[in-house]
Hints:
The chain is built from 9 helices and 5 strands.
Amino acid sequence: MEDRVQGERGYTIKDLPISERPREKLYSYGPESLSNVELLAIIIRTGHKEDTAIDLAQRILAMDNRGLAHLLDTTVEQLMEIKGIGECKAAQILAAVEIGKRLNRWGAHDKIRVNSPIVLVNILMDEMRFLTKEYFKIAILDTKNQVIAVENISIGTLNASIVHPRDVFRAAIKKNANSIILVHNHPSGDPHPSNEDINITRRLVDVGELVGIKVLDHIIIGDNRYISFKERNLI
C-alpha cells in the first residue's frame, strides 16, 4: 500500500480482471453473488486517488465491528471522516440504506396477517436488533389483523414522558386502526422487560380500551431474541 501511494499511480477498479469487477459480476451473476464490500463499492462508484471504490467500501465496513449493520444508524458526518468519502458519496450510501429499510418495513408486511408475535419479529428483527438507541414503534392492524403500517413513535430511553398515549393513539386513529401491537428494542441485546416497560404497557392497554383500539401485544426485540408480553401472560 505504501509503495503504491509513494510510487506508482493508484490503480482503479478497471485494473481488476473483468470477472472481479463488481458491476460486471452483478451483470453476469446477479446482485446476490456480490459481497457486502462489492455492493457498497457499486454505490460509491468511484475511488479516491490511490484508493479504489472497493478500498473505500472496506474502510466503511471496518468502522464498526457490526460491519454492514452499522450503516443503519450512521450519519453523513461519520462517513465523511473516511478520506475519499465526501458529502455526495455519503448521501448515496445513506439513501441506499434508507431504501432498504423502507422495502423491509413496507413491502415485507403488505397483506401479512399477524397471528403470532414471530410474524412481526421476522419483519423487524434485522432493522431493530443493532440499533444503539431505543425505538418505540406500533404495528397498526386492520379488522383481519393485517398490518396497515408500522409507525415510529419515539426514539430514546423508554419512559412515560417519551411514550405518551396521545402520540401512540393519534397515529393509530389516523390509520383507522382496529388494534395495535407495541414494539421496541433493547440496545443491550437483552429483551427482558423492565418495570418501566411493564408500566407503560399497562397504561397504553387502559387507554386503548377507552378509545376502542385494543393493544394486542408488546414485543421487545433484543439481539436475535425477543419477548412477547402476550406469550408471557403480561398483557
